[in-house]
Design goal:
By secondary structure, this protein is of the alpha/beta class. It has a single domain, classed as Aldolase class I (TIM Barrel, Alpha-Beta Barrel). Helix content is about 40%, strand content about 15%. Helix 8 runs parallel beside helix 10. Bound molecules: ligand PBG and zinc ion (ZN). Zinc ion binds next to loops.
Length: about 325
């Protein structure tokens, strides 16, 4: 039993909620535009944008248009960008991923040329470049881990060589961080950082992204490489392994249904924790708003603050600019 002075009517928690100023004074969580990273879909060519049916207000852009968008985001205080390439042609081996004249190296150069201060990250995976849409090289009908590693490494070197500050392997191959770190170091790219999609779940929330990136697997699913959502301890193990392989930043993905893992990762690892609020999170909010059922800005802010409160240092979100606008 608590002392009588520690309970009602002496204790009234509502005192600290009595005004906006009082609430701001005691707010435990704060959010800065500089911790938001904006994902961007890049198509080859010049002067073109395309709508994405499943993600209203998000577009695919050519490198020149993407560079303009980066300029606008920088003005709002968003300083980092995560690039996904959508090549014109795909093949069985995903060779377009590491083409030094491909869509991503082109976009990196455009952006860095105009805005050297922008922090540019490039997603490193095969699914956008393979004709079968899987995240690795197929052998005997399965995604082969060890055959995929050199391709990922070569891709990371191509992007870092073009000027990317960060490479972000997302294919969930075992050993991908180590393979990439070794290749970067051998290639004289010691300063390129690795943000690993360490605990990436086989989630149904990636649907809108796969339409945007045209990366739906042609057969099967991604459950032999992405994680089972019933496993939390295994997610911590995945992060641990990536840290030991040399990751500079680790990620939990998706964010929304995985806040428990963000907070565990924050408590256990002393390096930046990123959380990816994925396409399905975006499209669920957007579509409910478009139906008149929820307030988009309010739900968006509540989601992003919950991810921050859980412990994310970096939040990757399609809403980055909209949030930054509100914070301003
Ligand atoms: C590719 C990749 C995916 C996402 C990021 N990188 C999709 C997938 O694994 O199918 C999803 C991002 C999102 O849904 O916003 N490996
Ligand atoms: Zn992939």
């Amino acid at each position: 039993m608590k002392d009588e002075f520690e309970i009602f009517p002496y204790v009234r928690e509502r005192r600290l909620r009595s005004s906006k100023g009082m609430r701001d004074l005691v707010a435990e969580t704060s959010l800065a535009p500089s911790s938001l990273m904006l994902p961007m879909f890049i198509i080859p060519g010049k002067g073109r944008t395309q709508k994405i049916e499943s993600m209203p207000d998000v577009t695919r852009q050519t490198p020149d248009i993407a560079a303009n968008a980066v300029g606008r985001a920088l003005n709002l205080g968003v300083k980092s960008f995560l690039l996904f390439g959508i090549p014109d042609v795909k093949d069985e081996m995903g060779t377009g991923a590491y083409d030094e004249n491909g869509v991503i190296p082109d976009a990196i150069k455009h952006i860095k040329n105009e805005y050297p201060e922008a922090v540019v990250a490039a997603d490193v995976c095969m699914c956008g470049y393979t004709s079968h849409g899987h995240c690795g090289i197929i052998k005997n009908g399965r995604v082969d881990n060890d055959l995929t590693l050199p391709v990922l490494a070569r891709t990371a070197v191509a992007y870092a060589g073009a000027g990317a500050d960060i490479v972000a392997p997302s294919s969930m191959m075992d050993g991908q961080v180590r393979a990439i770190r070794e290749a970067l170091d051998d290639g004289g790219l010691k300063d390129a950082a690795i943000m690993s999609y360490s605990s990436k779940f086989a989630s149904s929330l990636y649907g809108p992204f796969r339409e945007a990136a045209d990366s739906k697997p042609a057969f099967g699913d991604r459950k032999t490489y992405q994680m089972d959502y019933r496993n939390g301890r295994q997610a911590i193990r995945e992060i641990e392994l990536d840290v030991s392989e040399g990751a500079d930043i680790v990620m939990v993905k998706p964010a929304m249904f995985y806040l428990d893992l963000i907070s565990q990762a924050k408590a256990r690892f002393n390096l930046p924790i990123a959380a990816y609020s994925v396409s399905g999170e975006y499209s669920m909010i957007k579509s409910a708003y478009m139906n008149g059922w929820i307030n988009e800005n309010d739900v968006m802010m509540e989601l992003i603050y919950s991810i921050k409160r859980a412990g994310a240092d970096i939040i990757i979100t399609y809403y980055a600019e909209k949030i930054a606008g509100i914070l301003k």
